[in-house]
């Protein structure tokens, strides 16, 4: 079943979205967190309260040395609980840390992936998810759909799932979900755009107008 996660640290917005959209979790990265208002402590607490026992929570390491990444991952896992995933960029140090975290049973999302071979390396080291950056691929002329297909084929014998990230529009999301990604993490405004259509709104408007013209204030149950 396709999973949709929210790529944002705006918990107020996430709480609005979860009322009408079935989400699997939330993802952040250092750039997203650098834009928050208020303190980091309050934001992490809010993120924990929103996700604890209910949603996946993917938080990226701020370290770049192997031992420090693993240490940070352990602390964050202890803080956020079982549904926590440490996001680790696929560098040499990152790959080494992915291997170690995986041995420690800390769930890993290998991130900042731009090629199928990077995804394969992360999967081999035990990553639970690989996060290919769709829009960033397209920004430099790579065929993102082709890349997702390749990753999907290469990972066929691995339990690793594809959590596609970096989207600028709904079409990109639709396309990559068709190419074998099990999950996508999307900004709140793209989730909103994905369920909106002007003709749906017009249809609802016309239904209401036609009903009112014929029946006024009367509701359908008044006819029972
Ligand atoms: O969460 C990481 C990814 O979504 C980055 O997205 O839009 O900054 O390319 P973007």
What does this 3D model show about the protein?
This protein is an alpha/beta fold and 224 residues long. The chain has eleven helices and eight strands. The chain has helices spanning 11-20, 30-34, 40-51, 66-80, 92-103, 116-124, 134-139, 144-154, 170-178, 188-194, 198-215; strands at 3-7, 25-27, 56-60, 84-89, 107-113, 129-132, 161-164, 183-186. An eight-stranded parallel β-barrel has the order 1-2-3-4-5-6-7-8, surrounded by seven helices. Strand 5, helix 6 and strand 6 (129-132) form a beta-alpha-beta unit. Helix 4 (66-80) packs across helix 5. The structure holds SN-glycerol-3-phosphate (G3P).
Q: What are the main properties of this structure?
A:
binds SN-glycerol-3-phosphate, 17% strand, globular, 11 helices, 8 strands, eight-stranded parallel barrel, single chain, alpha/beta
